[in-house]
Amino acid sequence: MTGANWETKPDGKPGWQQFFLAAGYNTYVSDAVERGRSGWSRFPEIYKGEPLFRTKREAWELFRFGPAGSWSGEAAQRRPFEDQQFPLEAFDQFAKQMVPRWVTNDAATQAAYDALVKRVGPCILVVHSQSGKFGYTAALNNPDLVKALIVVEPSGAPNPEKVEAARIKGVPQLVIWGDYLDRVPFWTNLLRANERWRDAVTAAGGEIEWLDLPEVGVRGNSHMLMMDHNSDEVAQLIHAWIGKQGFWDTR
């Protein structure tokens, strides 16, 4: 995916970029190496691997729009999860935002995130999915510049056996999860990895809040919860959490 995920929703409504701008934040939307405005480079001269392409079926099931076997090329025959908040009528428009991805560019991507933090910081990082691991590492590499870390459904987390959690204990963290996680086995290991990191940070004296949206009565969110119908409600929870950190008045 690209920074377009934060700018608008597939149903045409404004995204989180506008929400946080309206709330008074200086808001920057970045594209990772190889994505969106960062483009991509030739392989094997620069990128050492070939691109991968995510299918619509993979996105439908992995992003928890519907259970395994519920995908159909015909929109009327797709079977979403009950109470699904994603604008399903705009799924095909959403799929047009998907771009090629590589599994060989992590080092370049991390270097770019670190450089961005140094250029923009002090800052609050908001990251999602694959970029979760880059956000965690950017905070570990720049704990003086990252004032808070907000991680939305991260697909990875630092290994506390290899990374000293105490390095980030001064950075408050918020980790957010949507709905239907127990219905898609892919997410089980990701949850466990993030739970291990949460426990390590807590044991080191850090602050990490675990926000399970269904547990607080916010239901129906997909993996793309910044695009869901209730995404402003989720953004307001983030805004309130930032306010509790005491950086500035967010009323």
From TrEMBL:
SUPFAM superfamilies the record matches: alpha/beta-Hydrolases
Residues that span the membrane, as ranges: none
Name of the protein in question: Esterase
Lineage, top ranks: Bacteria, Pseudomonadati, Pseudomonadota, Alphaproteobacteria, Acetobacterales
